[in-house]
Amino acid sequence: MEKKDVKIINQGLEDEMEVWGYRPCPWKMVLVAVGAVCTGGLLFLVLYWLPEWGVRLTCTRTPFIRESQTLLLRSTVCYFTHHSTKYYWNDLIQCIPVFEHFGPLACEKAGKNANGFQSGFNRRLFFEVNEIAVKVPSVFKLLIKEVLNPFYIFQLFSVILWSIEQYYYYAAAIVFMSVISIATSLYTVKKQYIMLHDMVATHSVVRVSVCRGTLDVEEAMSTELVPGDVIVIPSNGMIMPCDAVLIHGNCIVNESMLTVSRTQINLPSSGEDGAGVYSIEEHKRHTLFCGTHIIQTRFYTGELVKAVVVRTGFSTEKGQLVRSILYPKPTDFKLYRDAYLFLLCLVGVAGIGFIYTIVLSIINQVPAKTIVVESLDIITITVPPALPAAMTAGIVYAQRRLKRVGIFCISPQRINICGQLNLICFDKTGTLTEDGLDLWGIQRVENGSFSPPEDDPANETLVRSSFVSCMATCHSLTKLEGELSGDPMDLKMFNATGWILEEPTEEETALHNPIMPTVVRPPKQVLPEVNQEVNLLSYEIGIVRQFPFSSALQRMSVVVRKLGEKRMDAYLKGAPEVVASLCAEDTIPESFTETLEFYTRQGFRVIALAHRQLEAKLSWHKVQNLNRDLIETNMEFLGLIIMQNKLKEETSGVLKDLRHANIRTVMVTGDNMLTAISVARDCGMITPHERVIVADATPPKDIQPATINWHYTENHATSKDNCVEQQEQGYHFAMSGRSFAVITEHFPDLVQKLALHSTIFARMAPDQKTQLVEVLQSVDYTVGMCGDGANDCGALKRAHSGISLSELEASVASPFTSSTANISCVPNLIREGRAALITSFCVFKFMALYSIIQYLSVTLLYSILSNLGDFQFLFIDVAIILIIAFTMSLNPAWKVLVAQRPPSSLISGPLLFSVLTQILTCLAFQVLAFLWVRGQNWYEKWTPLSDACNVSSANLTHGPNITSHVDHKNIRNYENTTLFYVSSFQYLAVAIIFSKGKPFRQPSYKNCKLHLCIVNCIVCVPHEWRITVVIIVLVNAAVSFLLESANERWCTAFLSWLFCRKGKTPRVRYMQVAQELQEDPDWPPKPATLQKNIFNQACQLITNSYLQ
C-alpha cells in the first residue's frame, strides 16, 4: 500500500490509527459469494474472523477517502464511528480530526455572553446525544459472537466428525463441556456489561437548566446538551452530566469518580485564564468533569453559577475512562504469540498424519467414506480442543489466590505478564512513605537570616507574624457539613496554627455584589484578655482571591485583606526553589541553599512561604481580573515549613526482597530531589556504599546550548585512585522532571544510557511519569508501576502491570488494585504471576504431549486398520486429561521471590528440547510395546469375533438364543489394549514430570488433588501381558524423568555451547546497553558540564540541505 493514500488519526496518541479508503467492487463480491457457496459458508467464517481480508476481497482501494462509500453516511458530512468516537472528514485540511469541541472557545467571551446559543440543532448534527451509553448486548447476540469463535467452530466440526464415527458418548461429553464453557462465558460478560452500565447510568440522564440566547433559563434533558451550551449549576449541587468550564461563581466538588483522591476542590472562575483559548490541560482547575459530584456553589447577588459545556458523551473524561474499559488495549505478550506458532506446528504435524492416513488407507483399499472420516479425525486428535480452557485454568486459580490476599484484578491476562516484571516504579508519598505529613517545625527569616527552628506555630508571640498569617490563609480548605476538608498537607498546616476558618452562609452571600470572602482568625485563648474583642477583630483576615496550586508551577498564592486595613496582601507557598526565584534577592538568607539541603538530606519535605504588600490602588474588582504573574513577583521571603514524611513499615523489607530477586526499583515522585534521595537511602533503594550522580540539565537559552551538569551528592575527589574506586562501586543517577524533559529532547543519545542506572526521578509531572515508563519499555524492561495518586493514573495504565493502592473508582485505570495500602502487594503479585506463568508453560507442554501421544497411538493403530474405541477416547480425554490439566494448575506460588526468572517464550531451546525428547521417548516405548506384543507366542491376530479380553471366540459354539457382538471396527485387539495402557501411563508420567514446583511454585507433592486424580486414573493392566506392560511403563517413566532432569540442568549451557551463544550480543536492549557501558572508560561521567554540540548538528543540517 502506498503511504500517500494513508490518513493518520490521533497521531502521537495511544489510539493512533491508519485509515485507507475502499469502495465496494461488484465482481469481487460475486467471486466471494461463489467461494462461500463452494466452501459451504466456511469462507464467510474466515472473513468474519479476519475483517481486513473481507474488505480487501470485496472492495477496491480509492486514493480519495471522501469518495469511500463506506464513510458516506449523511448528506455531505462524511464520518465513521470507532470505539464510540466519531471521526469526520474535513475537506479543508484533507484529514480526519476527532470532533470534540465546537470551535475554539474563549472563556472570557463566554463569560461576558453567558446566555448560550439560541439553538443547538446544527451542533447536534455533529455531537448527537450527550450520553455515555453502555449498551448491554442481548444474550442471543453474545451467544452468536461466542459460538462463532474459531475454537467453537473447530469443536462443532469435531463433534460432527465423531458422530459420523458413532463416537456418541465422547461427542456428547465434549458438547456438554462446551455448553458449560459458553454459559459461563456469557454469564461473566453479561455481568460485566451490567455492572459498567449501572456505574455510568446514575448521571447519564438528568434534568439541567440551560441558557439558550435569552435571559430566561429553560429546563432540558442532559442528553440534549452540546458543546457551547451554558448550563446553570444549582445551589444544592448535582452530578455533572458533561465536561464544562466554570465561568461564573465558585463550586466545591468531589472528584472521586475520576481521581483516586477524595479531596474536595474549590474551582474559582476563570479569571486571567479566560483571556486565552480554552484548553483541557491548561484549564483543568476550572473544569467540572463529567461524573464529579458538585457539593456546594457560591454565587453573586442576582447571578447564577454558570458553566460552558466543552465535551459531551464519550469525549468527556468519564467517557474516555469507560471507553478504556469497553475497548482495552490488546495485551501483546510473547507467550500468547508463541502459543499460536506452536499450534501451527501441531497443525503441520496433523497435516503429515492426514497425508499418511490417506496413503495408508488407499494402499489397504479402505472405503472412501472411511478414508475421509479417519483422515479428518487425525486433525482433531493432533490439535487439542481443550487447550484454551486448560491454559485459562491456571490464570483463574491465580486470580482467586490474589483475591484472598486483597489484590483485585480486572485484566486476568496480565497476571502472566507479572511473572516477567524486572523493574518496578514506585511513587513516593502514600506509596513508600505514609500518606499524611506531620509538621516537624518551622524556620522563619528575621533580619535577612534564618532564626532557630521552632516547633509550635500556634505560639502567642507568632500570632501577629506574616509567617503564621500565610500558613492560615494560603490554602484551598473549605467547610463541608461543619468540618474542614481539603488537601491533607493544607489541613496539617492550618491546624498547626490553631486558627479558625469561617465561610459565609448562602444568605450572607446573596446580600452582597461580590462573593463574600472566607475569613480566618486566631482563637480567643491565644490573645491577651485585655481588649480581647478589639484584638480579635483586628486579626480577622479575609481571603479575597485564590490562585490554586498548580503542579506545573509548583506553587499557590492568595490575596487577602486584614479587617480594618486598606491595602491588600499576597501570600505565596510552594517548592522552595520556585518561591525563592520569585522573591527579592535581599530577602533570601545567604544560607538558604545549605539550610534547604540540610533538611532534604534527612528526608524532610520542605515548603517555602513568601509575602508581599500590594499597592493601595488595587481594588477588589481589579484583583479578580489580575494575572497571577503580576501578584507573584518581587516578594519577601518569610521562611520554611518542615514536614516529616515517615516510611511505611513494610517498605524497607519489600524493597530488600525485590533487590535480592534482581528486580530493579525506581522512585518517581513530585517531591524535592534531595528529599527523594534521602528516602531512597532510608528504604534501601540505594545502599550506603553506592554513589548518586545528579544530572542537572538546563534548556537552551538565547545562544547558549542545552547543558548537563553532572555532580555527586557527596564529596568526590578526582584523584585516580578515587576514580578507580568509583568505577568499582555501584552508582545511581538522579534527575528532576525539568532535566528529564531537557535530556529527552536535546540529548536523545543519552536517554537509554541513563535509563539503565537512573533510580531517582524527582519533581515529575503526571505526563512525565507516563513518558518515563515508555522510555524504560523502549529498552526492553518489563515495567510495573505502583502508585496511589491521581497523578499516577497515566503511568499505571501504560505500564505492563499497574498496581493501584486505592480502591476508588479510578483504580479501574489500573489492571490491579490492592486493598492494603502498602507495597507488600508487589512481591505477592510477582510471585503469583510467576506461578501462573510456569503453570501456563506446564499445561501447554502437557496438552501438546497429550495430543502427540494420542496421535502416535492412533497412527500406529491405523497401520493395522484399527483405532481407539469410543469409551477409550472418553476415558483418556475426560477421566485423565481434563481432570489432570485442571488440577495440575492448583500448585500455589512459592513463598519467596528468587533471583531466577521464569522463561518468557515457548519457542526457546530448552523448552523445545524438553518437548522433543519426551515425544521421542514416548514414540520409542509405544513402538517397542506395539512390536513386542506382536512377537509374543500367544499373540493372535484380530478377527471380527475377538472379544474384549483378546481371547478368540471363533471356535466357540453358541446356542440358538445367544448372539455374539461382532467388532467390525477392529478395536478389541492386543495392539489396541497394549497401546491404550502404555499411553495412559505416559499421560500420567508427563503430567508429573511437567508439573514444576520450586522455585516458582509449591512442590507438586503438596498438590493433593492432582495426586488423587492420578491414583484414580491408574487402572488394572491386562491379565495377560501385565508384568511386561508394567515394566515398559516404569522404564518409560524413569527415562522421561531422567531426560527432563538433564534438560533442566545442562540444556541451556549445552545449547549455548552448541550455537556459540556465549560471545554473542544479548537479545534484550538494556543488556546490550549495559555491555556497551562496561567497555566505555568515560562512564559513569565525572563531575563536569556537558554541552549540546550545536556545531556538528549545524554542519550535518547544511550537508543534508546540500545533498538534497
From TrEMBL:
<dbReference type="InterPro" id="IPR001757">
    <property type="entry name" value="P_typ_ATPase"/>
</dbReference>
<keyword id="KW-1133">Transmembrane helix</keyword>
<feature type="transmembrane region" description="Helical">
    <location>
        <begin position="911"/>
        <end position="933"/>
    </location>
</feature>
<comment type="similarity">
    <text>Belongs to the cation transport ATPase (P-type) (TC 3.A.3) family. Type V subfamily.</text>
</comment>
<feature type="transmembrane region" description="Helical">
    <location>
        <begin position="871"/>
        <end position="890"/>
    </location>
</feature>
<dbReference type="InterPro" id="IPR023299">
    <property type="entry name" value="ATPase_P-typ_cyto_dom_N"/>
</dbReference>
<dbReference type="GO" id="GO:0031901">
    <property type="term" value="C:early endosome membrane"/>
</dbReference>
<dbReference type="InterPro" id="IPR008250">
    <property type="entry name" value="ATPase_P-typ_transduc_dom_A_sf"/>
</dbReference>
<keyword id="KW-0479">Metal-binding</keyword>
<feature type="transmembrane region" description="Helical">
    <location>
        <begin position="378"/>
        <end position="398"/>
    </location>
</feature>
<dbReference type="Pfam" id="PF13246">
    <property type="entry name" value="Cation_ATPase"/>
</dbReference>
<keyword id="KW-1278">Translocase</keyword>
<dbReference type="Pfam" id="PF12409">
    <property type="entry name" value="P5-ATPase"/>
</dbReference>
<feature type="transmembrane region" description="Helical">
    <location>
        <begin position="170"/>
        <end position="189"/>
    </location>
</feature>
<protein>
    <recommendedName>
        <fullName>Polyamine-transporting ATPase 13A3</fullName>
        <ecNumber>7.6.2.16</ecNumber>
    </recommendedName>
</protein>
<dbReference type="InterPro" id="IPR047819">
    <property type="entry name" value="P5A-ATPase_N"/>
</dbReference>
<keyword id="KW-0067">ATP-binding</keyword>
<dbReference type="InterPro" id="IPR006544">
    <property type="entry name" value="P-type_TPase_V"/>
</dbReference>
<feature type="transmembrane region" description="Helical">
    <location>
        <begin position="29"/>
        <end position="50"/>
    </location>
</feature>
<feature type="transmembrane region" description="Helical">
    <location>
        <begin position="339"/>
        <end position="363"/>
    </location>
</feature>
<dbReference type="GO" id="GO:0031902">
    <property type="term" value="C:late endosome membrane"/>
</dbReference>
<dbReference type="GO" id="GO:0015594">
    <property type="term" value="F:ABC-type putrescine transporter activity"/>
</dbReference>
<dbReference type="Pfam" id="PF00122">
    <property type="entry name" value="E1-E2_ATPase"/>
</dbReference>
<keyword id="KW-0812">Transmembrane</keyword>
<dbReference type="InterPro" id="IPR059000">
    <property type="entry name" value="ATPase_P-type_domA"/>
</dbReference>
<dbReference type="InterPro" id="IPR036412">
    <property type="entry name" value="HAD-like_sf"/>
</dbReference>
<dbReference type="InterPro" id="IPR044492">
    <property type="entry name" value="P_typ_ATPase_HD_dom"/>
</dbReference>
<dbReference type="GO" id="GO:0006874">
    <property type="term" value="P:intracellular calcium ion homeostasis"/>
</dbReference>
<keyword id="KW-0547">Nucleotide-binding</keyword>
<keyword id="KW-0472">Membrane</keyword>
<dbReference type="GO" id="GO:0019829">
    <property type="term" value="F:ATPase-coupled monoatomic cation transmembrane transporter activity"/>
</dbReference>
<dbReference type="InterPro" id="IPR023298">
    <property type="entry name" value="ATPase_P-typ_TM_dom_sf"/>
</dbReference>
<keyword id="KW-0460">Magnesium</keyword>
<dbReference type="InterPro" id="IPR047821">
    <property type="entry name" value="P5B-type_ATPase"/>
</dbReference>
<feature type="domain" description="P-type ATPase A">
    <location>
        <begin position="208"/>
        <end position="325"/>
    </location>
</feature>
<dbReference type="GO" id="GO:0046872">
    <property type="term" value="F:metal ion binding"/>
</dbReference>
<keyword id="KW-0597">Phosphoprotein</keyword>
<dbReference type="GO" id="GO:0015662">
    <property type="term" value="F:P-type ion transporter activity"/>
</dbReference>
<dbReference type="InterPro" id="IPR023214">
    <property type="entry name" value="HAD_sf"/>
</dbReference>
<keyword id="KW-0967">Endosome</keyword>
<feature type="transmembrane region" description="Helical">
    <location>
        <begin position="841"/>
        <end position="865"/>
    </location>
</feature>
<dbReference type="GO" id="GO:0005524">
    <property type="term" value="F:ATP binding"/>
</dbReference>
